[in-house]
Amino acid sequence: MPTEHHADAPRPALRADLHPETVVVTTGRPAHVPDQPMNVPIHLTSTYVAGGDLEYGRYGNASWTAFEQTLGALEGGRCVSFASGIAAIAAVLDLVPVGGIVVAPRHSYTGTVGQLADREASGRISVRWVDLTDTDAVIAATEGAAMLWFESPTNPALEVADIATLSAGAHANGALVAVDNTFATPLRQRPLTDGADLVVHSATKSISGHSDVLMGAVVATDDDYAHAIVGRRSLGGAIPSAFDAFLALRGIRTLPVRLDRAEATARTLVERLAGHPALAEVRYPGFGSIVSIVLHGAEPADALVGRTSLWIHATSLGGVESTFERRRRWPAEAETIPAGLVRLSVGLEHADDLAADLLQALDAVAG
What we know:
- By secondary structure, the protein is an alpha/beta fold.
- The protein folds into two domains: 20-252, Aspartate Aminotransferase, domain 2, CATH 3.40.640; 256-366, Aspartate Aminotransferase, domain 1, CATH 3.90.1150.10.
- It is 34% helix and 16% strand.
- The strands form two sheets. Strands 1-7-6-5-4-2-3 form a seven-stranded mixed β-sheet, with helices on both faces.
- The longest helix has 19 residues, at 255-273.
- It is globular, with a radius of gyration of 22 Å.
- Its cofactor is pyridoxal 5'-phosphate.
- Its EC number is 4.4.1.2.
């Protein structure tokens, strides 16, 4: 006979000492009672019956909540989901008051650079561009600034920031600290525990992991900041669809195994690419699934991305499939990024197959 269950029995709270691999599987689930589904159903509704907390589809959805609970638990704060990563970035930058100063690295995601440049051109903010590798200079630049914004590793230079030191220095100068954690994911670093105020994700990338979702997220430890971010989402309407939130949650359930596999393959590729005559440099921060290789100019880099059968020429990253692109093909990319830099997003294919495909293309370019 099966053990008797009581539908009204409370579910024990999740322990705070659970490992991330357990958190991604167990958080954002319905109660453990008979006949409950294992997953939060997709709530396809724009309207709710009045008198409750939701009222209207722009203010909440159960699918968002389940995703937000899971990513928030991983990052150690309160998560707010958005329709895209760029929408999440915009919501955070909206916290900067008119006339405020933002300190940001020259090597940043081009969407972030575009947001900052647009705001500066309209007179809403001023931007101080810095070199993220010079920690002291970055902290000095935050004097009188409203916000320090940076990503680590940087896209696509793969520079790694000292998050704790930068956060402490910026706070001492009265600046808010926001970190884009898309490349590292909360499995490799947790900026909020290192002192950052806000963390941003393009959940389109490794979080969802299957190249079928457009979503973003902001995570904050301070309730006031989280409330302000929710307000920006409600006013701006940059809400994710219920189906996208469902897919992103399904994707995050397997993030640990996907990232471990892709990271192991990335390390193998770095070893096998070292010293290849077609390459001037191989960049890898030591963790994660992103590698940047630098060829001797734009022409061989453009030739490379047309000579593979497994690697896909595409601008996104973090999916199960391996993609690559020459970043300077985008006019908004920083001129300090080498013209021959090709960013690799390592997927889940076998390391030997990926290496062979890339090496034969490099041989052809070098030949």
